[in-house]
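fyi for ur records
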Amino acid sequence: MRAVRLGAWNEKERLVRFAELKRLGFQVAYKPMDAGALLRSLEEERPSALVIDLSRSPALGRDVGVAVRVRASNRPIPGRFSGYPWPPSRGGHAD
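which gave:
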């Protein structure tokens, strides 16, 4: 089974993303979102992919994605963003 690491800041959105990924046949690993803990966990357990939820804080999700890519050892891990409505609202917020 393909293991995916899920990064999300909001419990409600995390449950939605978790259920979507499980329905698609992924084994989902999740720990409460903390950028430092996420980077350490990627070194300990290499997932098949990393999914970062942007629905709560798009800028923070983007920054975590950049931090993951900065480490050369993490570059082979495919990364995907989810949960951001497109096109963005006029105010620039996801709400």
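The chain is about 40% helix and 20% strand. thats all i got for now
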